[in-house]
Inverse folding.
């Protein structure tokens, strides 16, 4: 029997490793199963090159729980180790790395930046164990099996033992604080989380935990539509089928495989992030992929797998690295190319899916200039009648003649609520204008951003002004009222109690509304963004609404009102017309709304008496 002390100068190596090595104790299972996979894959490689001539047999990893003995055992039938190899890899190599780790990080209080090539994975077992045994037999012929044992102090024992088959058993004697790891359900959950797609069968009880050949490890030419959809269902059992997907498969200048799915999003508020999982050689690493996947693509679902992404010792946080930026740019380009391809090859299908696709496209165009360049071609805007879609170029061609303002800018007219804004939409349509729908969560920000990115294009909401003023062409219209009648009408509107209302008489079409209330585009946008939580803008939300009230002097109702002799009734009728216009913009509330209802009843009763 060999006895020895692990060659480190610090007596408290294990407490330090326990504290710093991993933030999450359950990761020890991933580390030990990953080591078992590596040992199995090494044996396969040796067999393929003729260096191992024995029978491979069933190559699988088993996880066994013994509640009475309070042990958890992870076994493989891989290469195994000789006594010399145990001494080298367990006693020397790993702990020379541990010593380097201590020298570098002792006293810093945080090990989250330490890198994982110190070979410390095996020692994660001591986070949950009073004692750990390694029982191993090398694949090499004529070599005795050995047993290594350590109780978490620097002392260990290494002795010959008997073991029928090649491979390695790691036996963990679980400590009192970690008895959660003696629960079958807990172990099953951890295995399903970390080992679901490992390339070697992993068995717990009678059940195989993993799919050893997930879709992303195959070539796109080997997969059918059903294969992609089945894999999506495997990842997200309760989700609706995806719209489409992108298979990533690149080996230069970095290695990356994976499948990214575009989920169906029925409502804007159903957006779910953190649905992309990162794997490294089929080992689950994290759902936190924001450093690899651009933020706007965090709405996608799926898997990416890259051994080239550098990870710290717990494999749970990405480090700054040029490869990460290259991978992010590659994914962005692939997504843009896929959207462009679908748009060109199947525009009707693209339009059908636009409710979901539009969120990705708009978000991407706001945050990534290269994506925006490609997005300019496939971004589509639906008209308010939901009868057709325009690209930016198509909208320009149809609307430029009527919707170019005095500064030479194309004015894109939009509605956010076609039902509520119907009277404004109809008035704009009567002038031949094209109105598109912008009603998603991202549209307010999208409009602001695109105005700064698209040349000579501005957006105006259809209720931002009267139809005659939506496109500023300096046109003037005459009123049919005499000067005296206009003066009297201005006087009647001058009695309105609302503050911050600017009243203007204008000679509009006789068919237009008698009073039209609008809010200036810029001020309304600022208030909307502030209400949505725009940083540094909260004071805007509390500012009173700035209201423009346009009185259509050509509407026939004003001649009737002016010909009445009762000035009080005139004022009530004018007030009601103003309140109706405010109501159309949701600007009549509380006591003003109650007064409007009461006044309307009173005026109707007066009409009956007359």
């Amino acid at each position: 029997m060999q006895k020895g002390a692990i060659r480190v100068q610090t007596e408290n190596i294990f407490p330090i490793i326990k504290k710093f090595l991993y933030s999450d104790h359950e990761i020890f299972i991933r580390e030990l199963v990953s080591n078992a996979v590596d040992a199995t894959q090494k044996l396969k490689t040796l067999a393929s090159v003729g260096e191992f001539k024995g029978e491979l047999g069933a190559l699988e990893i088993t996880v066994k729980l013994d509640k009475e003995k309070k042990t958890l055992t992870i076994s493989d039938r891989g290469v195994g180790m000789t006594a010399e190899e145990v001494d080298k890899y367990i006693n020397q190599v790993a702990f020379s790395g541990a010593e380097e780790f201590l020298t570098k990080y002792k006293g810093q209080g945080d090990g989250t930046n330490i890198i994982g090539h110190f070979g410390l994975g095996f020692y994660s077992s001591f986070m949950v164990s009073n004692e750990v045994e390694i029982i191993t037999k090398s694949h090499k012929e004529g070599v005795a099996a050995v047993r290594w044992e350590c109780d978490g102090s620097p002392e260990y024992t290494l002795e010959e033992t008997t073991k029928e088959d090649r491979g390695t058993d790691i036996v963990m004697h679980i400590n009192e604080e970690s008895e959660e790891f003696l629960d079958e359900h807990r172990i099953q959950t951890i295995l399903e989380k970390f080992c679901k797609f490992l390339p070697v069968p992993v068995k717990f009880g009678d059940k195989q935990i993993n799919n050893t050949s997930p879709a992303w490890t195959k070539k796109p030419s080997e997969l059918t539509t059903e294969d992609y959809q089945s894999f999506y269902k495997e990842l997200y059992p309760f989700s609706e089928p995806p719209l489409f997907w992108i298979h990533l498969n690149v080996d230069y200048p970095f290695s990356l495989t994976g499948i990214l799915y575009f989920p169906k999003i029925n409502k804007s508020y159903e957006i779910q992030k953190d649905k992309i999982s990162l794997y490294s050689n089929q080992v689950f690493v994290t759902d936190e992929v924001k450093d690899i996947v651009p933020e706007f693509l965090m709405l996608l679902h799926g898997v990416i797998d890259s051994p080239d992404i550098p990870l710290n010792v717990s494999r749970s946080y990405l480090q700054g690295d040029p490869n990460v930026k290259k991978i992010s740019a590659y994914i962005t380009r692939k997504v843009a190319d896929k959207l462009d391809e679908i748009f060109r090859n199947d525009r009707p299908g693209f339009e059908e899916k636009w409710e979901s696709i539009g969120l990705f496209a708009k978000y991407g165009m706001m945050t990534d200039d290269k994506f925006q360049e490609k997005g300019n071609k496939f971004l589509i805007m639906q008209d308010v009648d939901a009868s057709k879609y325009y690209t930016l170029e198509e909208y320009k061609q149809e609307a430029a003649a009527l919707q170019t303002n005095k500064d030479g800018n194309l004015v894109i007219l939009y509605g956010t609520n076609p039902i509520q804004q119907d009277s404004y939409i109809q008035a704009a349509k009567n002038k031949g204008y094209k109105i598109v729908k912008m009603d998603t969560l991202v549209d307010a920000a999208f409009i602001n951003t695109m105005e700064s990115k698209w040349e000579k294009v501005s957006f105006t909401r259809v209720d931002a002004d009267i139809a005659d003023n939506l496109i500023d062409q300096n046109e003037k219209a005459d009123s049919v009222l005499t000067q005296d009648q206009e003066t009297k009408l201005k006087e009647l509107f001058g009695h309105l109690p609302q503050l911050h209302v600017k009243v203007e008489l204008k000679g509009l079409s006789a068919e237009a509304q008698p009073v039209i209330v609008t809010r200036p585009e810029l001020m309304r946008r600022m208030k909307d963004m502030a209400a949505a939580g725009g940083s540094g803008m909260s004071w805007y939300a509390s500012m009173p609404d700035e209201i423009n009230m346009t009185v259509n002097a050509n509407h026939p109702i004003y001649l009737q009102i002016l010909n009445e002799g009762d000035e009080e009734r005139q004022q009530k009728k004018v007030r009601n017309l103003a309140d109706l216009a405010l109501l159309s913009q949701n600007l009549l509330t509380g006591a003003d709304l109650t007064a409007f209802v009461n006044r309307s009843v009173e005026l109707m009763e007066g009409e009956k008496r007359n």
